[in-house]
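tool_call: predict_structure(chain=1)
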Amino acid sequence: MFKSTALAAALLSLSALAQASDVATILKKADAFRQTDSSAQIETLVQTYKNGEPDKEKRYEVLIRPGGKSLILFRSPGEVGQKVLMSGDDFWMLLPGSARPMRITPLQKLLGDASTGDIATMTWSGDYDGNIKSESSCDGQACLELELTATRKTLSYQRVVLHVAKQDYRPLHADLYAASGRKLKQARYFIEQRDGRPTVTRISLRDEVQTARETVVTTLSSKPRQFGDELFNAMYLSRNDVKL
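tool_result:
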């Protein structure tokens, strides 16, 4: 009896490890559709819509590099010179003329439902653990539903229910939850060919409460670039302009 129980426990443990490995692989492949280069300069347009009609728009230049580092440069009139720096779990807002960077959260809004974390953070692998919850049909294709849990309390969303295509693990849509368990919004991912490979070029964000409002984040261009360490140092950025 003891041997049977031990064997069953061991098999369950191996099954859990195998699924964890599967989820890690799925997330890495899903990430590859969103971030095609590990170090890149990305031109981003954020637009808001009310009842399907265009409302506002803003432009950003996003610099990303390995190690969880991103720099958002504001490019819209009246905001030029503003910056948001993400370094690991730390976010800073830097304003022109201010000698000190201000700490902010990744949920700090930029425009509509697009927060700093939505623009600066482009990966799930490494930030989330999870399991494959079910297999179903999404938009006429077979998909997997993944239940993801944040590995750190500082992440924008503590729980993510992510749907990916079963065939190639491209992200389809995700429900994004706060630490309280409240659903904040849903993200839908739209893919087109860029440089000969399928890439997420547009993300639609819909507020869970204000359902008539939509925020669309569009990647206008993305090119691989290498950046110096100083561009990801808050004190350097507070004293110097960024020249690309």
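agent: Residues 60 and 221 are 11 Å apart (CA to CA). Proceeding to next step.
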